[in-house]
Amino acid sequence: MNKISLIIRREYLTRIRKKSFIIMSVLGPLIFAAYILIPMYFATLEDKEEKLMVVIDDSGLFTERGPNGPVFIIQGTETLKFQVVEGVPVNTFRETFEESGYYGLLFIPSNILASESSLIYSTNQTSLVISEYLERSMESEIEDLKLASHEIEDIDKILAEVETSINVRNIKWTRDGKTQESNTGVIMGIGYLGGMLIFFFIFFFGSQVMRGVIEEKVSRIIEVIVSSVKPYQLMMGKIVGVGLVGLTQFLIWMLLSAVLVTGLKAVVFPELNQTPTEQVVSSDLFDKGAGVQDMSQPSPEILAGEDMDMAKEIFASLKSISVGMILASFLFYFIFGYLLYASMFAVIGSMVDNETDTQQLIFPVIFPLILGIYVMINAINNPDNALSFWFSIIPFTSPVVMMVRIPFGVPWWQLALSGSLLISTFLGMTWVAAKVYRTGILMYGKKVSYKEVWKWLRYSS
């Protein structure tokens, strides 16, 4: 046992002293946040280039007479303008369209009500945003025309009165009879994040175990080490040491993430730190200010208020989630999921002489993890169906799939069954890995197959 602890200490100290560990420990939460926020930011960037689209309306439904000629009744935007032409065939623009400076040509056929289709001609691919804008606008105009044909008096007023927006809030009943507000989207996000982190940590740190075994085997230092310790002790020391490095990095990430979230709440959402009385007063002042505005054109203040309500709902739903339960479950499934897969990664490392040869051997090991990711996506929407249940029980996929189900609430017996099977499988796989490891670790110059490994299991004492 003392020899295993020495190997654990060596593996742990060697890795946490590396610059890469320090850099990733500090930048990890920032990189992860950037990975999520930067695509969202780029998606919100607007195209500032002004585009002019020529319109040929053979139906006559979307044009009206203006003082300076025909006018397209669909309003343009800051970057999209329309110019109506009459009596000109579409083919007239074909050859000279690129030199004309137009972004595109919108052709509305005379049978638009029957065909429900219009065409956009352009020398380049039309933007999806512009296509969707035209579709929604034309659909709205045609719907108004169809409603007007019924000659219902005050149709606009009636439509305005019946327009309704319903916000469905989720309230959970606790076992002690209390109520807690929850948000399905937040719970789904936490489950998805937990499952992906489990997958990432198991694969990343398990691969480190495999690379470490290969490096020591290639350098022949393994021959010196096994003269002092048993192969099983070496394998367990390496697995546990790298696992502790992963736990250390995770705890650092959790601490830095908590600081970032606290700072975000204080700087971006200061209202969330107000007392209930202060929030009521602020809401009352906001309502008085918004009451004198035209509600048909929401102001930035109103939109900000809606965003604030959403933020409050998200943070309120976080209070309904048992953070301690999620963290404890994450640590359990990370530790034993990692130990299970790290033992298999160590076996692969002992079977080869270089990392290139691992490609054909590693797929059967990582396939259950990849399968768990696919099932995890299904479990987000259906956490209690049979597929999610069984894959959260099977030890090779339970670390990923169960982490998705836990935020939704899982019966204790399912957690107990999943955890006990995971521990039992880890112990059995460790016994198998130790038998293969002590034979393969000293074998050089031979490509080993799984068929050969099966022979080692049969004749190893």
Question: What's this, in brief?
Answer:
With 461 residues, the protein is of the alpha/beta class. It has helices spanning 2-16, 19-44, 97-100, 112-115, 128-148, 155-162, 184-218, 221-225, 231-267, 276-290, 300-319, 323-351, 359-381, 386-393, 398-405, 412-440, 450-459; strands at residues 51-57, 63-66, 69-72, 80-84, 104-108, 119-121, 170-173, 179-182.
Explain this structure to me?
The structure is a single chain. This protein folds into two domains: 51-152, D-Maltodextrin-Binding Protein, domain 2; 189-270 and 320-459, no CATH class. Helix content is 64%, strand content 8%. The chain contains 17 helices and eight strands. The chain has helices spanning 2-16, 19-44, 97-100, 112-115, 128-148, 155-162, 184-218, 221-225, 231-267, 276-290, 300-319, 323-351, 359-381, 386-393, 398-405, 412-440, 450-459, and strands spanning 51-57, 63-66, 69-72, 80-84, 104-108, 119-121, 170-173, 179-182. It has a four-stranded mixed beta sheet with strand order 4-1-5-6, with no helix packed on it. A two-stranded antiparallel ribbon has the order 2-3. Helix 2 crosses helix 9 (231-267) and helix 7 runs antiparallel to helix 9 (231-267). It is elongated. Residues 288-308 have low confidence and may be disordered.
